[in-house]
Specification:
Chain A is α/β, with parallel strands linked by helices. Chain A contains 13 helices and 14 strands. Chain A is about 40% helix and about 25% strand. Chain B has twelve helices and no strands. The chains are: A alpha/beta, B mainly alpha.
């Protein structure tokens, strides 16, 4: 078997012959890794995942999951994958156990085996005490975990997670990450996930593909991507009003200076060496440095570098994306 | 491939799981369950008992003007008998039975089929909105099974309600036709099965494209009552204006209702019954094929 668990070549989806949601993307996911699709809402993440889980047929290009073509051998694909959708799909009127058993039935798993798996799965997602409670009474985090359990009932080799922590609070989100890490570590599962949270992609994914307007702009490990920007970020403030951008720019190792809200955001190679040089240069000119911080670049800088806009800015215009998404959904009907 | 997971997957696997999911929502929710039973009772009470058509043509509803010379008691008795016979003839001529309540109660069975199958379309919309549909689509359950489970659950519900209506109608005084045999009830279930499969396939094909609950609601509101009244469920079509008769004569509900009447309250006309079954059978086959093909194509885009 080839190393690539998922392989996409020129994968494209055009809705109603004019709305290009996914535009000729190529990528591959290796065995046992957590691969993340990172991008703002409406970038084409869900459309991609829906093609891979055989809900949508690609307009062009092809992709395979564990060697099965998603268009030609869709039934085989469905048998070996697990899906944790963005929405809470568990039936509110049924209990946790009944929901997992329903999922098991959809895979044709015999009842006796299914019942054993339910016990294991509830333990895995720490819902054992709530198995016989109706889903109506579950909190958001519990529902997420139940979805996870349902997605694992057929012992999938690849698990697809669409925005696994959407709408969860920070604490619950971190807990969910731990469950996902456990799947990779203990079961050697390959995971494909989408997210629009930078921290999530950074904390969880072995490799990230940044997607924007239906195109993959860059793929790589989060660390690698951040280092590819070639430097650290020094944030610095001075007491005086004057603009010292040019002065800082002239210092050795400094690559870029931006003035933001009275402080300077400096990109520099090996920040720990450059920072003292900057302080020294400023002091010699009679300026007083009031604050200084040194950070490694975040995925937001990577995103900014490759798409020309900040991920956070993109998120702020969420309204626009949401409406675009609605249009796509409608077009899709 | 499927054996690799130790799973037993036939072409139809998942059908019962999905059907039962729908049915559970119904029988596990006491309020919905009771309402679905109360509804036909109310209709039967309102229409069947309030519209006491038999009373209109009976001699007791109006007083005859005093005739001169006054009628002798034997003459009055004769007149009474004459009116009674007239009432029977009119009712028999119009409704093929002397009891309007029986006529109407049986019409309720087709009515239930229409309502229950129409609302089955709603559950498709919910499944799409809540993402459940996508989840099922990503499992090895075949697309045809997904659609068929919806049809089947609506059909089973309707058939259950039909059985219940017959029982309630008996309690309210349903008069069976001459030569009625309890085995004919199976025939009622058979025709109900056919009409429900046909109707729900159509409604599911209409609603499966919609993610808004308003769309099927509008469709249901637009067509349910017209479809009901343009049939013989409440009134014989031979007294309708020509244009309405034309509609009523192609309306499959007319044939369903007629079949149920032939089986339960008329003295069974077998030729007519065969015609009814053939018509509804053909309707079911065509509607189910078109409905399922459209739904299937939509789900596998």
């Amino acid at each position: 078997m080839s190393e690539d668990v998922i392989k996409a070549e020129g994968l494209t989806k055009i809705f109603n012959s004019h709305l290009t949601a996914v535009d000729h993307i190529d990528f591959s996911v290796k065995h046992g890794e957590i691969f993340g699709f990172l991008g703002p809402n409406g970038a084409g993440k869900t459309t991609t995942i829906n093609m891979l889980i055989t809900i949508l047929k690609p307009t062009d290009g092809k992709a395979s999951v564990l060697g099965f073509d998603i268009a030609q051998q869709d039934r085989n694909v469905r048998n070996v994958i697990g899906v944790v959708p963005q929405e809470y799909t568990a039936d509110e009127d049924l209990t946790g156990v009944e929901n997992i058993l329903l999922c098991a039935d959809l895979y044709g798993i015999p009842r006796d085996i299914a019942k054993e798996r339910v016990i294991d799965l509830l333990k895995l997602v720490e819902l054992t005490d709530f198995g016989d409670k109706k889903v109506q009474t579950f909190s958001g985090g519990m529902r997420r975990r139940l979805e996870l359990a349902c997605g694992l009932v057929n012992r999938p080799k690849v698990l697809f997670l669409d925005e696994p922590t959407l709408g969860l609070d920070v604490q619950t989100r971190t807990a969910t990450w731990n469950y996902i890490r456990k799947l990779k570590k203990e079961f050697g599962m390959t995971l494909f996930m989408t997210t629009h949270y930078l921290e999530e992609a950074d904390a969880l994914c072995d490799r990230v593909a940044i997607i924007d307007h239906g195109k993959i702009v860059v793929v790589g490990a989060p660390e690698e991507l951040k280092h590819s920007l070639g430097g650290d970020v020094i944030t610095l403030g001075i007491k005086e009003e004057a603009d010292v951008s040019e002065l800082i720019q002239s210092i050795e190792h400094v690559k870029d200076v931006k003035k933001e809200d009275g402080s300077y955001r400096i990109k520099a190679e090996s920040g720990e060496v450059t920072a003292p040089l900057i302080i020294e240069a400023l002091r010699r000119k009679g300026y007083t440095v009031t604050k200084l911080s040194l950070t490694e670049p975040t995925l937001n800088e990577v995103y900014l570098e490759y798409t020309g806009k900040s991920m956070r800015d993109a998120e702020e215009s969420r309204e626009a994306f949401a409406s675009q998404r609605m249009t796509m959904r409608r077009a899709h009907q | 491939m499927t054996e690799a997971n130790g799973n037993s997957q036939s072409k139809m696997h998942g059908l019962w799981a999905l059907t039962n999911r729908e049915l559970k929502k119904w029988y596990k929710a006491p309020v919905i369950f009771i309402l679905s039973i109360v509804q036909p009772v109310i209709w039967m009470g309102l229409l069947g008992k309030a519209m006491n058509i038999g009373a209109i043509v009976s001699g007791s509803t109006f007083t005859l003007p005093q005739l001169t010379p006054p009628l002798t008691p034997p003459q009055l008795q004769q007149l009474g008998t004459y009116f009674a016979r007239l009432q029977t003839t009119i009712l028999q001529g119009a409704f093929n039975t002397t009891d309007y309540f029986s006529f109407m109660a049986v019409g309720m069975i087709a009515f239930t089929a229409l309502f229950t199958t129409m609302f089955s379309g709603m559950s498709v919309v919910w499944d799409r909105r809540l993402g459940f549909m996508n989840k099922v689509l990503s499992t090895p359950v075949s697309r045809a099974v997904i659609i068929f489970s919806k049809v089947l659950s609506a059909t089973l519900r309707s058939m259950f309600q039909a059985g219940l209506i017959i029982l309630i109608a008996i309690a309210f005084g349903l008069q069976f036709g001459i030569g009625f045999n309890p085995i004919y009830v199976l025939g009622v279930f058979a025709i109900m099965f056919l009409i429900c499969v046909g109707l729900s396939s159509v409604f599911i094909a209409i609603t499966i494209r919609s993610t808004r609950i308003e769309t099927p609601m509008a469709v249901v509101n637009l067509i349910n009552l017209p479809l009901m009244f343009a049939s013989n469920a409440f009134f014989p079509i031979k007294f309708m204006p020509d244009w309405l008769q034309t509609i009523a004569k192609v309306n499959p509900l007319t044939y369903t209702t007629d079949a149920v009447r032939q089986l339960l309250i008329f003295s069974t006309d077998w030729t007519q019954l065969v015609l009814d079954f053939t018509y509804v059978g053909i309707f079911a086959a065509i509607a189910a094929t078109i409905g399922m093909v459209l739904s299937w194509r939509f789900l596998s885009k």
